[in-house]
Design a protein that fits this description.
heterodimer; A: about 60 residues; 2 helices; B: mainly alpha; elongated
């Protein structure tokens, strides 16, 4: 059984979802790559920020 | 003596026949893309895009199963029904996995919960990819 950490799961999720978003939402390869990277960064950054927010609320 | 190859199963005629089927049935890339991740793009000869989509969706689905994610079936609760609709987006992957009894019956550990979400989201991403193949076929996207 695979047991990734929460962060590893977030990164894997962001990677796969960003690839699909990049390819399907843009037309040229260059714009696909840029949009894919943008989505990946947004996914991971928002997960980190929300984690800190929840940590501070829980204290 | 020269023979006409018209109507014979030669390579050029086979390609022409494949193109003819593709031209007639507009929804073929949509259905193929839903049943097998990336197949819609492969039919349209978008090899790179198809391979990346297939790798992403298959990877996400496989990781979901490896994390002991749950495959929804016979859902009665509304949230379970929505998750089952997401699972069905995986097409043949879902049907074959259900037939083989893969996936956990119940979510008991945190990673299994991640796995369940991975499987549902893989299905939703596959639907987006299949619709993209349809848009390429109809000319809405290039």
């Amino acid at each position: 059984m695979l047991r990734p950490s929460h962060f590893a799961a977030v990164v894997l999720f962001a990677l796969f979802a960003s690839v699909v978003f990049g390819i399907t939402q843009r037309e040229t390869p260059r714009r696909m790559l840029r949009y894919g990277i943008y989505c990946f960064v947004l996914f991971v950054a928002s997960a980190v920020v929300l984690s800190w927010v929840m940590f501070l609320i829980a204290r | 003596m020269r023979y006409s190859q018209k109507g014979m199963a030669t390579a050029p005629n086979k390609n022409a026949a494949e193109q003819d089927i593709l031209q007639r049935f507009v929804y073929l890339p949509l259905i193929a893309g839903w049943l097998v991740p990336g197949a819609g793009h492969f039919l349209l000869r978008k090899w790179g895009r198809g391979a990346l989509l297939a790798a992403s969706i298959l990877g996400m689905f496989t990781l979901g199963l490896l994390m002991q994610g749950k495959l929804y079936g016979g859902a009665s609760d509304i949230l379970d029904m929505l998750c089952q609709a997401g699972d069905l987006g995986n097409g043949l992957l879902y049907l074959v996995s259900r037939a083989l009894g893969l996936g956990a019956d119940q979510v008991q550990v945190t990673t299994a919960d991640y796995g369940t979400r991975f499987i549902v989201v893989a299905g939703l991403l596959n639907v987006i990819a299949a619709v993209d193949a349809h848009n390429l076929r109809t000319g809405r996207k290039s």
